Amino acid sequence: MSVDGEGIVALPRGAAVIAHSAQSDVGRVRSVNEDSFLAEAPVYLVADGMGGHARGDAASRAVVETFRRHLEAGRPSSPEQVLDAIHSSNDAVRALSQEGEEGTAVAGTTLTGVALVDAGDGAGFHWMVFNVGDSRVYSWDGRDLEQLSVDHSAVQELVDAGLIRADEAERHPDRNVITRALGADEVVEPDIWLIPATGRQVFLICSDGLSKEVDDEQLAEILAGDTGHAAGLAGELVEAALEHGGRDNVTAIVVESELGGDGGDDDEATRDRPGSRSRVTEDTTPRPEKD
Predict the structure, then answer these.
(1) Rounded distance, CA 96 to CA 180, Å?
(2) Domains in the chain and their CATH numbers?
(3) Which residues, in sequence order, are CB contacts of 153 under 8 Å at separation 6+?
(4) Least crowded by CB within 10 Å, which of 13, 17, 81, 210?
(5) Which residues contact 9 (CB under 8 A, 6 or more apart)?
(6) What CA–CA distance (Å, rounded) separates 148 from 95?
């Protein structure tokens, strides 16, 4: 499934023009696509479901449906509204778990994405990055690709503790073990970042079916190139994952925001400067402290 589109979000001074390219594919090995995505300005997210054919796809769809109910399309939300959507999504996913003869069939899903929010108290508009699990959000400034989210995974904890190198994580037997997911616990703890919305900004949101098949260098090459793919950049990214084996469901959303009006920066200056992020608030500290 692929969706390309553009939305205009009115702001008190000016507007945000947000274009997106989104695609999801079952891959070359799986028989059911347990990934779901939402790409409706100004909210973009990917949910990668777990729990088998009956539960994983239902869990990821429940997240999309919950966000649609909680956040109004076409206008910025508040950070509190986004957090409420995340917590309500956790409740919706937990409601899918069923008791059976072999115990509880637990549904679960990752969740990652960005939403344009009004931070309030004169702070202005920000892109709110949120994450639970090992799907990812990247920023792209035309030269540098930066991973904004932090994986909630067993191998990431080993890397942060200095027990294995990052390149070893790709081959580690626990590379598919995640340490946080919607539906796993009664209360979910998302990681949150607030990035000032200004000028031109580009985000890549994806399931691990992309990030585990295509390395950051190739992701950057695709984002930097001119694509003739029918589904835009997202289609080219998904195709690259399939060419590398497509061992999992794969979903990608590329979001390009242009902020006009008094709050906007010069387009070229924004396009060329190195990526930066303002880590204003974070509900959890996903990486262990080092001595």
Answers:
(1) 17
(2) 2-272 (3.60.40.10)
(3) 134, 175, 177, 178, 179
(4) 13
(5) 15, 16, 18, 41, 42, 74, 75, 76, 116
(6) 30
SS3 118: strand
Strand order in the sheet with 2-10: 2-10, 15-25, 250-259, 200-206, 136-140, 145-147
Torsion of CA 210, 213, 215, 218, to 10 degrees: -80
CA distance 169 to 156: 7
- Say if residues 235 and 206 touch (Cβ distance below 8 Å): no
Structure tokens at 211: 């990030």
Cβ neighbours around 207 below 10 Å, total? 30
Decide: 67 and 37 in contact? Cβ < 8 Å: no
Model-level pTM? 0.85
Q: What is the largest CA-CA distance in the chain?
A: 62
User: Tell me, what DSSP letter sits at residue 282?
Assistant: -
DSSP state, residue 276 = -
State both tokens at 228: 């003739």
Q: Which amino acid is residue 48, in one-letter code?
A: D
Residue carrying structure tokens 């080219």: 236
